[in-house]
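Worked example 3 (structure in, sequence out).
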């Protein structure tokens, strides 16, 4: 591992000899290892701040989850979640069987916690043909049954099951992102249709007004998984959703899109004049900031001509805001009186602490992003410093089958992709360090 701000450009040694501040930084070279499974089903990757790597996916048959000389053999069909220590050594794996009779848990995303724990979220599928069977979210010997719905589970640093929560009923939500605060409390962002109960416990907190439009959802659980609060930025007379979430200090930033808004927004946001295309309002990307109790501090929409949405958010130590936006047309990235219009398919825009425009880079594939060491930002397979100047670009021809990308501000970057040459019938984790 290289210390923050240094790169190992001379691959004949591992001394991390090059300072990024000197301008002589190289594109780091990867190490890689194979993990079992197939990208045909939901897979996810996440890195904790200390460099711990979490990988999830789908497996079938006899599978050794330890890519080193050790053996951790499982025989089943289902979903796995594996942990690797910061030095790359194998830690543990947890698996859920997936059978027609018992159901399945498909992991769509992972989020490390501040205490070494990890949250996995995704879709819970009930088993059985006529009489549906609740699914056991606890992969250990204990039982924690949940109906077909959206599920969230949390494990401690040793892989012990802490708790599982689910949202079902008339319209369970789709979880887009999860975040932790420093106390280990959980925040969930996504969207739902019609009405839903935001409280996964015995209580009831109804959201939505019915109908067939999607509404955005932001909710919080405490460190034990108990319901704290929830809110919707719009009501169900709009079509909206949240796609990104980040907590820094005592503030929470989230963002998504809103369109076809015949209802109201709360807090009130003056949406820009929306051009009509094929009789449908374009999806307008917006950014929202709340405190950790869910009280809204401010909300900011961007003006656009075609559909766009917020897919990623990062905040650096100077409280500069970086927003990854996926788009299908022009977006004005200057929220003030100026105009800085760019065309997609994806862009990263930077705002100051008071949300004034700083810079934008465009032409990316997708809008997800994360921070790298030295106040640098990563999106797609390119990186920029805090002033928006490019620092590197990975060869996109090598990542034709790229699936997921994430980074740690301490330990570097990991790309999870498909490699049929080195990892037949499996996934390859490419790990870069700075």
């Amino acid at each position: 591992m290289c210390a923050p701000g240094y790169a190992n450009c001379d691959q004949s040694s591992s001394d991390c000899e090059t300072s990024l501040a000197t301008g002589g930084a190289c594109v780091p070279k990867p190490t890689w290892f194979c993990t079992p499974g197939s990208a045909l089903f939901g897979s996810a990757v996440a890195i904790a701040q200390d460099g711990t790597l979490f990988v999830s996916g789908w497996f079938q048959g006899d599978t050794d989850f330890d890519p080193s000389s050790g053996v951790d053999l499982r025989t089943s069909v289902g979903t796995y979640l594996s942990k690797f220590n910061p030095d790359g050594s194998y830690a543990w794996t947890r698996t859920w069987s997936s059978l027609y009779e018992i159901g399945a848990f498909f992991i769509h995303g992972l989020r490390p916690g501040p205490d070494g724990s990890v949250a996995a979220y995704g879709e819970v599928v009930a088993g059985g043909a006529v009489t549906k069977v609740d699914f056991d979210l606890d992969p250990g010997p204990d039982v924690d049954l949940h109906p077909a719905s959206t599920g969230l589970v949390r494990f401690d640093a040793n892989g012990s099951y802490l708790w599982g929560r689910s949202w079902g009923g008339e319209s369970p939500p789709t979880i887009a992102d999860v975040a932790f605060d420093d106390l280990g409390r959980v925040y969930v962002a996504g969207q739902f249709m019609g009405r839903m109960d935001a409280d996964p416990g015995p209580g009831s907190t109804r959201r939505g007004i019915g109908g067939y439009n999607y509404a955005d959802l932001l909710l919080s659980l405490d460190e034990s998984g108990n319901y704290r609060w929830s809110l919707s930025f719009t009501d169900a007379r709009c079509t909206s959703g949240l796609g990104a979430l980040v907590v820094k200090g005592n503030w929470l930033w989230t963002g998504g899109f809103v369109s076809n808004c015949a209802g109201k927004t709360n807090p009130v946001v003056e949406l820009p004049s929306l051009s009509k295309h094929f009789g449908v309002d374009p999806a307008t990307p917006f950014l929202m900031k709340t405190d950790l109790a869910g009280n809204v501090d401010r909300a900011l929409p961007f003006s656009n001509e075609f559909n766009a949405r917020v897919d990623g958010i990062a905040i650096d130590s100077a409280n500069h805001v970086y927003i990854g936006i996926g788009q299908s047309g022009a977006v004005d990235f200057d929220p003030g009186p100026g105009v800085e219009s760019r065309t997609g398919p994806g862009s990263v825009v930077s705002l100051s602490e008071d949300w004034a425009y700083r810079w934008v880079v465009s032409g990316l594939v997708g809008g997800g992003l994360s921070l790298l060491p030295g106040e640098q930002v990563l999106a797609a397979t390119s990186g920029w410093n805090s002033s928006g100047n490019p620092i590197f670009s990975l060869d996109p021809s090598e990542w034709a089958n790229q699936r997921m990308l994430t980074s740690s501000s301490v330990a570097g970057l990991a790309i999870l992709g498909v490699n049929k040459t080195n990892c037949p019938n499996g996934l390859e984790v490419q790990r870069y360090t700075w």
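Notes: Residues 86 and 156 are 16 Å apart (CA to CA). The two ends are 8 Å apart (CA to CA).
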